[in-house]
């Protein structure tokens, strides 16, 4: 039954590749049609708040309807939103309002789909016999591969064919992901379609009562404030100021390669020594912020980004495996949606604080400040992890 895990990973890979290409092609089309460099930011901001609401409601939907149906429906909606944008553009002309409306519809597909796919991993593991940590490691490696190849593929396609054809390809990736998920023959977790709505919402409180989940929540809240400013503001601003766009690309590639390597290592060695893997991931995140603190030194930045990729590749499997172990099947979708919602909530806050700080300080000062802020959090997270995570536990 290992073919089940292969189909699951093929679905995830198709979806992630489509999203990676779309993240380049979509802003390009927004700029091309509106002629306003700020338009892409306006669209992203307008979609952010509905996405947060969708993340919360979507988690409830995953647990009430089922992981596989929501995963399929999400990919279909995501592909349909891209197809609709192409048709609107061809027949009426895409305007800022259309981009915002169809972006929100796309979020209806993308956001719950991430939680559904993560929650589905336990069903795939149960059916295929492949452990959750190894499946999660494979997903991390796939994430790294699509992060590495997706933007490059988008650039090549956009230079060879029309932007409309590129978007049709991304829509096809979403439809292909849905088709692969339809082919999955898995042992489903039980769902309770009669669950009382108010009891269902109270389940969110029970999820965060677990000490392991509390640890992950605090790490997600603090790191989420820092990662977006680093990737979206500080690194681009520095490399643009020194006219080295290639180094920006290499820094992002170093992150992707680190994630691929870590995913391969976890797939080979596993995560039985849970505390060690957790502690190593937090230490590598510290090394990452230390490297990027020397923002004017391109080699230190490359080392830092590679360390960040390694850290992410180790963190992901521990995070996914622990959530599946400490939460019940009936709230698994909400557990994964919680972290999607946190990321959607704190990232704009981090970017807003960065914009404010840049009125008083340089990007180089802020890069150092990120490391100073993260270092004690990392030490606390390592200490807390050694208290609440098992020393040795074979994954189910």
UniProtKB/TrEMBL annotation:
Any single GO CC term annotated in Swiss-Prot or TrEMBL for this entry: plasma membrane
Q: What species was this sequence derived from?
A: Corynebacterium kalinowskii
Molecular-function annotations in GO? transmembrane transporter activity
The protein here is known as Multidrug-efflux transporter
Major facilitator superfamily (MFS) profile domain ranges (all copies): 166-396
Q: Where is this gene product found?
A: Cell membrane
Under the heading Pfam families, the entry gives: MFS_1
Q: Which PANTHER family match?
A: INTEGRAL MEMBRANE EFFLUX PROTEIN-RELATED, MAJOR FACILITATOR SUPERFAMILY ASSOCIATED DOMAIN-CONTAINING PROTEIN
């Amino acid at each position: 039954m290992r073919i089940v895990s292969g189909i699951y990973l093929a679905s995830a890979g198709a979806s992630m590749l489509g999203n990676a290409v779309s993240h380049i092609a979509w802003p390009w089309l927004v700029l091309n049609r509106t002629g306003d460099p700020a338009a892409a930011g306006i669209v992203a901001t307008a979609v952010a708040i509905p996405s947060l609401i969708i993340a919360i409601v979507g988690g409830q939907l995953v647990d009430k309807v089922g992981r596989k149906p929501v995963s399929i429906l999400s990919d279909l909606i995501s592909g349909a939103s891209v197809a609709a944008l192409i048709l609107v553009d061809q027949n009426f002309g895409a305007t800022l309002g259309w981009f915002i409306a169809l972006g929100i519809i796309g979020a209806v597909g993308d956001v719950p789909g991430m939680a559904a796919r993560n929650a589905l991993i336990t069903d795939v593991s149960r059916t295929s016999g492949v452990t959750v940590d190894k499946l999660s490691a494979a997903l991390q490696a796939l994430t790294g591969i699509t992060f590495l190849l997706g933007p490059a593929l988008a650039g090549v396609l956009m230079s060879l064919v029309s932007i409309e054809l590129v978007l049709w390809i991304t829509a096809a990736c979403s439809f292909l992901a849905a088709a692969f998920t339809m082919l999955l023959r898995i042992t489903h977790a039980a769902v309770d379609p009669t669950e009382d709505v108010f009891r269902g919402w109270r389940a969110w409180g029970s999820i965060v009562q677990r000490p392991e989940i509390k640890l992950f929540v605090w790490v997600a809240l603090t790191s989420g404030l820092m990662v977006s400013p680093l990737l979206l503001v500080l690194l681009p601003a520095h490399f643009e100021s020194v006219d080295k766009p290639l180094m920006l690309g290499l820094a992002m590639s170093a992150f992707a390669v680190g994630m691929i390597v870590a995913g391969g290592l976890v797939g080979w060695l596993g995560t039985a020594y849970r505390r060690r893997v957790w502690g190593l991931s937090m230490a590598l995140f510290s090394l990452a912020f230390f490297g990027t603190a020397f923002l004017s030194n391109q080699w230190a930045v490359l080392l830092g980004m590679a360390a960040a990729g390694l850290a992410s590749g180790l963190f992901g499997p521990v995070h996914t495996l622990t959530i599946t172990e400490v939460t019940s099947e009936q709230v698994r979708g909400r557990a994964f949606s919680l972290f999607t919602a946190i990321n959607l909530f704190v990232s704009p806050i981090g970017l807003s604080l960065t914009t404010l700080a840049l009125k008083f300080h340089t990007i180089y000062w802020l890069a150092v400040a990120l490391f100073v802020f993260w270092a004690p959090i990392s030490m606390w997270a390592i200490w807390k992890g050694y208290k609440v995570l098992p020393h040795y536990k074979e994954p189910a």
